[in-house]
Write a structure and sequence with these properties.
528 residues, 17-stranded mixed β-sheet, Leucine-rich repeat, LRR (right-handed beta-alpha superhelix), mainly beta, single chain, 4 helices
Length: 528
């Protein structure tokens, strides 16, 4: 127990009693007028909380054994943060919780005995973050006013009215930006879901939804959509145009994807990743449609960049796609068995429409799972060499995933079969520098290029258990406004036409002969 002398510390601003496991209670009847922050985290024998200052702004009770919060909670007029994470014995919250008008963040994560929220009878206009993961709450109160809520997380909770979400506190909330509903027994999203105009991140993984409402296309601010392990999901509608990441890993019933997946914009600015790992019901036609959409989007992105004279090496892909399979699309004009390619390039391959390279690999996963399973990057080390022996070397990323969606419920991503990774990468600086500094009048000198593909755990450590068994590369060019690809038809025609004209056989070998070499190395390959 704290000594009585603490009552005289009138200028005390910060009090940290973290992990004081012998602390059972706080002294009654004192008011430390200057105290702003009180930390009681991990005080595992603290069963009752007494208010010792009415001016507290940050209160940490996480990991304590309290069963209820102080009844006079409304006296904490300046309280901004209330952290009750993993208070496993907490059974209820005070009925006057709504009187905390300054409260901005309420953390109830892991309060497994908490079964209900009290009615929010008045507007809590400052509350922006509400985390209720892992509670026993099945239904929010009928009276609730949280119009300024920006982040709401309810992972691992079985919503009682699982067919609709009308009772959740984000209903009609136009400020909500992050919504995490992993494993909530949800079967359907309401049609008026599009009213969440500010939504940027939406996590619906491990739910029972079969499709998404078509109105989701109207969520123009949506950047991240997590649908992992929605095992009943069988189709995807057109998604918002500014989406940056769609993760549908483990959607084993997914068969149909809207064509186009997203409506392409002439002024594309957003780089995008489409993850369809372990979506085994996606047939080849659906996969090709996804790749074609990715090609068009990458060309529009690069075209916008060229128009605005955005110079610089962009190592992350303009667009990346991955899905189950053992074959690289045939339009990759240069392919090889193994993990590397080397080729010679014709003069004038690097014209003013040149964007970069389309890269593709087939990766074999041998039950890849472990502490780095949720952080994986497929990379390519490239070397361009001119006829004078000068060379430049850099790395590209074909695809990456890391578990950033949701406030809990992370689990290893296990892949046991072959998967295809395809990316469209910008590459307009290193090669162009040579051309601009050239004195011989040739804009594009004959250049050789080599590509080595490998996987890492998201750092620089290579993953030896995951092997690249086949790889491919084609050059990528920005479309003119009159190009068929730019107008929304098959962009594969544009890519195949322009890239196939840029390559010559290596030492007299044809494309097919090169592609069938099974050792993954070409003769006289440059060391990397």
């Amino acid at each position: 127990m704290l000594g009585s002398s603490i009552e005289q510390m009138n200028k005390l601003i910060y009090l940290n009693l973290r992990e004081c496991t012998s602390l059972e209670s706080l002294p009654e009847g004192i008011n430390l007028k200057s105290l702003k922050t009180l930390i009681l985290s991990g005080c595992s024998n603290l069963q009752e909380f007494q208010i010792i200052s009415e001016n507290i702004e940050s209160l940490y009770l996480d990991g304590s054994t309290i069963q209820r919060v102080a009844e006079r909670i409304e006296s904490l007029r300046n309280l901004i943060l209330l952290n009750l994470k993993n208070c496993c014995r907490l059974k209820c919250l005070p009925n006057d919780l709504y009187k905390l008008k300054s409260l901005q963040e309420l953390i109830l994560f892991g309060c497994s005995a908490l079964e209900s929220l009290p009615p929010i009878k008045e507007e809590m206009g400052c509350l922006e973050i509400l985390l209720m993961d892992g509670t026993s709450i099945k239904q929010t109160p009928e009276t609730i006013f949280l119009s300024n809520l920006k982040v709401f997380s309810f992972c691992g909770s079985s919503i009682e009215d699982s067919t609709e979400l009308a009772l959740l506190p984000f209903s009609g909330n136009s400020c909500l930006s992050d919504l995490y509903l992993t494993n909530c027994n949800i079967y359907k999203l309401p049609d008026n879901f599009s009213s969440l105009h500010s939504l940027r991140s939406l996590c619906l993984s491990r739910n029972n939804i079969e499709t998404l409402p078509e109105s989701i296309e109207k969520l123009h601010c949506l950047l991240f959509l997590d649908l992992k392990h929605c095992r009943r999901l069988n189709s995807l509608p057109v998604l918002p145009p500014n989406i940056q990441c769609v993760d549908a890993h483990g959607c084993v019933s997914l068969e149909k994807v809207a064509k186009p997946v997203t409506v392409p914009l002439v002024t594309e600015r957003m780089h995008t990743t489409f993850i369809f790992t372990d979506c085994f019901k996606l047939n080849r036609a659906e996969q090709e449609a996804i790749v074609a959409q990715a090609q068009l989007k990458s060309q529009l992105l690069a075209r916008t960049s060229l128009q605005h004279n955005h110079k610089g090496l962009v190592l992350d892909p303009l667009v990346a796609v991955c899905f189950p399979g053992s074959d690289i699309p045939s339009w990759f004009c240069h392919q090889s068995m193994g993990s590397s390619i080397e080729t010679n390039l014709l003069p004038h391959w690097c014209n003013n429409k040149f964007i970069g390279a389309s890269l593709g690999v087939v990766v074999t996963f041998k039950d890849h799972e472990g502490r780095h399973a949720n952080r994986l990057s497929v990379r390519c080390t490239c070397r361009f060499k001119n006829r004078n022996g000068q060379s430049i070397r850099f790395s590209f990323c074909l695809g990456v995933w890391n578990e950033s969606c949701g406030s809990s419920c992370h689990e290893p991503r296990k892949l046991g079969s072959d998967h295809v990774f395809i990316s469209f990468n910008n590459c307009n600086v290193p090669v162009f520098q040579w051309n601009e500094e050239s004195n011989d009048g040739n804009r594009c000198r004959p250049t050789s290029a080599s590509f080595e593909f490998y996987l890492t755990d998201g750092t620089e450590r290579k993953l030896e258990r995951c092997k690249v068994t086949r790889c491919g590369m084609s050059l990528l060019y920005a479309p003119d406004e009159n190009d068929r690809g730019f107008q929304g038809t098959r962009v594969t025609d544009t890519v195949e036409r322009t890239s196939s004209e840029a390559f010559v056989p290596i030492r007299g070998r044809s494309h097919s002969q090169v592609g069938e070499r099974r050792n993954g190395r070409m003769r006289d390959e440059m060391p990397l």
